[in-house]
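QA checklist item 7 of 12: single-chain prediction sanity check.
[x] sequence parsed
[x] length recorded as 522
[x] structure emitted
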Amino acid sequence: MPRIFLYDTTLRDGSQGEGISFSLQDKLNITKRLDELGVDFIEGGYPLSNPKDFEYFQQVGSLGLKHSQVSAFGMTRRKGGIASEDTCLRALLEANTPIVTLVGKSWDLHVHEVLGTTLDENLAMIRDSVRYCKDQGRRVFYDAEHFFDGYSANPDFALATLKAAADAGAEWLIPCDTNGGTMPDEIARVIAQLRKQLGIPLGIHCHNDCELAVANSLAAIGQGATQIQGTINGIGERCGNADLISLIGNLGLKLGYEVLLPGSLERLTEISRFIHETANMNFRSNQPFVGTSAFAHKGGMHTHAIARLARSYEHIDPTLVGNEQRILVSELSGRATIIQKTEKLDLGNDKTLMSRILNRIQNLENEGYEFEAAEASFELLVQKEAGLYSPHFEKLVYRVNIEAGIDGLPITEATVKLRVGNEILHTVSEGDGPVNALDGALRKALIKVQPRIGEIHLADYKVRVVNARAGTAAKVRVVIESQDHDSVWTTVGVSENIVEASWLALVDSIDYKWLKDKEKRG
């Protein structure tokens, strides 16, 4: 089985995405994860760009990487300079990486208008830089910046830049669609021509400005390119880079290429979410292969078919990439969906109950509820409709008071009164806002009875207006995501009053935690 080599530039190109900033420890942690996965090459950054990248190259050697090789990235020598005296090239060599990736100009427009030099001098800059790094014992990859635009404008010069790098000892030539505006058929045509004219391995580096980075990369592979450059989750400047997650899934599962280490495809979802978390980004739910919605089914006809034959609506088994099938509950659901979602309760034979649950869901969603993203609230609803639910506590009264303090800042205080068994619990808590104060009061009341309530962490809080035309009297839907040390769950509340909607979702969250811990104990 032929191998496609993966070159990850998450730490450099990915970090150039808006709002993304990796700490030094983030970069080291990501490097270890990519190595464990079996990524062949990891571009660590440009040693001269900032102290963090410099320190990364000082420390990365101590990680003891087992598979990946790290590359330092930088530009060719300055115009009119000498390679051996160039500050950038010296920094690349001092990074002590086995690979140096050099980027140079391929588009005559850039040579004249950006560099302000001649075409011959640009060729000399490429040739001198590659040869110098090669003579210093480094493997050299050459990134041909803006290659496809340059090839369209002046094919002879663009080709000459690649030949200059090849003649000087570059091991791999990587044409770059830097502006992300080239179409797949053009990528394929150019790569095919280059293979005929160059006797050296080719790679591909695509940006996603036309949402074609993955398609363009695969087009290049189809014409014989053997190295793909990209980032995990496609993060990067402007619209991002080619998404290595999608590329790995397609190459490994669809096209039969060898990628990563054996067994690593099953960790694609894990690495995707790790990078999202590290970059402090929300998961992209509809991300192919690894998104939470990638194998989620909502329509009744779909879910009915999935119950009989999963591949009727799924292009792969989601477990192959570490993901899972999800059946969403909504007003579009049919009885088959409800049966699937309640399998563990063994209620499927009770058609009357299934219809009652479905009717209840449809009525609630008509009022503004949404259960497809609130499965904990759905499970509580099912238990109540089936007569299996025993209240853990009874809500009696809650009150929230907000007043301005001496310094003008608001002070929020929540009072909660509950009944647990024969005991009345009455607690007060201050918070940063009404929801935080209510959460504190609830926990304070219940933690003495159920200590594991203290394990709950509120991970996310979302508010959506249900009927915007009602203005300030509109209903709102509050969705709360909670987690403990081993699981994540989501609950929902709806009301014209945002505090009431939040209260309903909070109560469901604590109720669900109590329920699942009881089920664990058997």
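[x] summary fact logged: The longest helix spans residues 498-521.
[ ] second reviewer sign-off
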